[in-house]
Every structure is written in structure tokens, then in C-alpha cells.
Specification:
This protein is an alpha+beta fold. About 30% of the residues lie in helices and about 25% in strands. Strand 1 and strand 2 form a beta hairpin. The chain is globular, with a radius of gyration of 13 Å.
Length: about 100
């Protein structure tokens, strides 16, 4: 399992408000894989996001689905640097009119 595998798993996690994956929205800031551990830093488009805990839980579940049994998975919300539309994939930017 590598960072690309984790990113692919997170591609299946859709923000219900935006109707797009958290990866395409640019919400995934960092992935660290260590022996028996996966750590993901992610953000929301706004600190007031009503689905933040849902997205954290769904992200952890998506990673656990592909990780070896017993892997310690932790998804942390971070607010620095602040999210901006420039973090979105080109497809997401086009969809939302940012490009």
C-alpha cells in the first residue's frame, strides 16, 4: 500500500454538498504511511462545514477498506494552510467555474 493507493481510496469519498470527491476538491493535504499506520491531513472548504465529521469518518473507512488488517488509521482536520479553489483539480475548477 502506497500513497497512490490511499489517494485512490479517498477518491471514493464524495462531499455530499459539492457532489465531488474530496480528492478532486483539494481537501486532502497530506498522506503519511509508516509501519502499521496511515495518517491523513485533510481540510474543509470552511471551518463551519456541516459534514466535516462525516467526511473524516468516511475517509477513515475508505482507507481501512484497503489497508492490511490492524492498520492504525487516523484522519485529522487541519486548517493551515486555508483551503482555496486553486487546490481543486482542473476538472473541479471547471465544474465550479473557477477556471
Amino acid at each position: 500500500m502506497n500513497e497512490d493507493d490511499i489517494r485512490q481510496a479517498l477518491q471514493s469519498v464524495e462531499d455530499p454538498e459539492a457532489g465531488m470527491s474530496i480528492v478532486d476538491l483539494g481537501l486532502v493535504y497530506g498522506i503519511r504511511i509508516e509501519s502499521g499506520k496511515v495518517r491523513v491531513d485533510m481540510t474543509m472548504t470552511s471551518p463551519a462545514c456541516p459534514v466535516a465529521s462525516y467526511l473524516v469518518d468516511e475517509s477513515a473507512a475508505a482507507i481501512r477498506a484497503i489497508a492490511p488488517e490492524g492498520t492504525d488509521v487516523q484522519v485529522d482536520l487541519v486548517w493551515e494552510p486555508p483551503w482555496t479553489p486553486e487546490r481543486m483539480s482542473p476538472d473541479a475548477q471547471r465544474r465550479f467555474g473557477w477556471s
